[in-house]
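Ticket reopened. Same input as before:
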Amino acid sequence: MLEAPRKGSLTPMTRPGTPIEHWKEVVNDMMKAYKHEMESEAHRIFREAAGHKPKAVLPQTVNPDEETVPGIEHPGSTGVIYCSDRAIANGFSYASAHDWANMGQGAPEVGPIPDALPRPQSIPVPEDSLEYAPTTGVKALREAVANLYNVQYRKGKESKYTYENVCIVPGGRAGLSRVAAVISNVYCAYQIPDYTAYDQVLGAFKRLVPIPTVLDQENHYKMDIKQTKKDIRTQGLSVILASNPRNPTGQVIKGQELDELVALSRESTTLILDEFYSWYIYPEEGEEYGQSISSAEYIKDVNEDSVIIINGLTKNWRLPGWRICWVLGPKNLITALSQSGSFLDGGANHPLQLAAIPMLDPERVQIDKIALQKHFKRKRDHVLKRLYKMGLKVAHPPNSTFYIWLNLESLPAPLNNGLTFFEELLKEKTIVIPGIFFDINPAHRRNLVDSPCHHFVRLSFGPPMKDLDMGLDAIHRVLKKARTHGMKPFGHSYKTSLDGEITEEDHDGING
Ligand SMILES: Cc1ncc(COP(=O)(O)O)c(C=O)c1O
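Engineering reply: fixed in the latest deploy. New output:
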């Protein structure tokens, strides 16, 4: 929390625990918390982006000013694209990227880290690999994935994965799309907040009906498994989608609770568990490095329990550019995914599938997993410590992923909402992701300030340490400005003109 400025003097550094009540007194009337999004410049700019107009309760009618290509409708950008467009409007470009801190980044640093094994700098392209690969992927890679899961999570269990339980896909989102394309006309539950792309992926496949549930801070953003069990019966939920570990809260369902969750798959409900951050688990005092989490550990019969696991090289192997991922599940799911892959994406890149096989060697994996956990835990602890020193205490520090879900409610308005905090940091050459992108249908909400994610931003500690420090310095500058000048400099003067300056190149490396 920030300390209120004393009249005529610069306040010293903030002290955690200082009451915020003082702030409230010094905030002048016009700067009170926004009651409606239209009072906020940051929110008005958000509404101007294509696909972000509010949609009424009535069926959507296409906005003729926005949709000029007949029959084409913008689905609304995932958070990362909107945030990068706003960064570009504030002077970010591919050439100037090194002057910017990208704490919005949804990808881990890809360079060498201490004790991790080197990754290939070049890959062979044998003639066979110039052919299409099967839509379910190269058999040897499917076998390598099945073997890795059996070694990591199914030791001593009778039912084991085989290649027939694995479908290789060109990235996690392609995997999600393939799965979404084969879900029939059913209720599909998901939680808020969760990974931004679920909104669009679920929305693109009109047959399934998405049913959101809001996760509470008081409950550590945990999914209430008892309630879910009830909902399955009373609401007729057929499919449940969740990331675990969860983006953006950094919380993980494990042990007994994960066991209970997996048990739901034996009650005629299909669980889709997005386990992209399964290695980003940070041991507590006395616990060992090298443990990872997967629902695969709790499945009884790999062909009977309806659990669909999505994972890949993107995060754990720190290879987002390879676009080699997989879906793991009952054999009968894999044959359906082969069919949706044949019209959606045609399969993953053939030479990179071959190059991925040695990366899945269990011994190699264990070395990389430990190196990754040590390195990212150091970064997590560093960022949390600096935030704390600035008076920004994280209620539930992440025990997994590389994200911090930061509640800004303790700051004075308008810095206390994610979209304004984001705009203020852009002025300081730093990118974070406003919380509303992790809400259901953020662009279609009629009043964005009512979103349960309105007061949050997601900070990523995926980038290298020096970039994190640049971003933290920027946050410090914003808070210092607030202490010395009050709230007058905030909430306005945002650059909106893109002046046709955005090039494809400016977007390079921005994804995830
Ligand atoms: C939970 C989760 N699932 C899937 C993905 C996407 O993976 P990919 O980049 O392989 O499409 C991400 C990326 O940010 C993610 O956070």
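Residues 1-17, 56-60 have pLDDT under 50 and may be disordered. The first strand starts at residue 101 and ends at 102. Please confirm and we'll close it.
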